[in-house]
Structure prediction request, 62 residues.
Amino acid sequence: MASEIAGVHDDRVSGRARCLQCGSYATQRFARVFGDNDNNLYACLECTTMRALRNGEGVCAD
Prediction:
């Protein structure tokens, strides 16, 4: 998992974030809105539904 977090950090330098579940790119704004307090995104529209994201699925790693 540490390598994934390092990869997310590197992508954020370029202004992009990655979903930690499927690896798809997302915008920083998307990660800020649907991710956790550190902008970690555990789900995105490629691997879940908007309804699930609105219910907080992108916030926790479960």
Q: What stands out?
A: The first helix runs from residue 2 to 13. Residues 2-54 form one domain. The chain has a mean pLDDT of 80.
